Amino acid sequence: MMGCKIAHGTTFKCAVGEGLLDQRRVVQIGLRGTSYTSKDYQWSVDQ
């Protein structure tokens, strides 16, 4: 998925970036994924 414009998490990352999800009330469960780099993981924590 690295280097791909669209991947399995794109929908949620875009929704967060566009302010479409209330991050205090949304929980994402079951989406497969890996931690590619510590920067990618930190982005998730920061949200």
Explain this structure.
It is a single chain. By secondary structure, the protein is an all-alpha fold. The protein has one domain (10-46). 36% of the residues lie in helices and 0% in strands. The chain contains two helices and no strands. The protein has helices at 10-17, 38-46. The longest helix is centred in the C-terminal third of the chain and has 9 residues, at 38-46. The protein starts with 9 loop residues before the first helix and ends with a helix.
Q: What's the domain count?
A: 1
Q: Report the structural category.
A: mainly alpha
Assign an overall shape. globular
Number of strand elements: 0
Low-confidence stretches: none
Order of helices and strands: HH
Query: So how many helices?
Result: 2
> Major β-sheet, in short?
none
Average of pLDDT? 78
Protein name: Agmatinase, mitochondrial
InterPro entries: Ureohydrolase, Ureohydrolase_dom_sf
GO molecular function, one term: metal ion binding
Pfam family, one: Arginase
Features:
metal ion binding; 36% helix; mainly alpha; Ureohydrolase_dom_sf; 47 residues; single chain; 2 helices; Agmatinase, mitochondrial; globular
How are the secondary structure elements laid out?
Elements: H1 10-17, H2 38-46
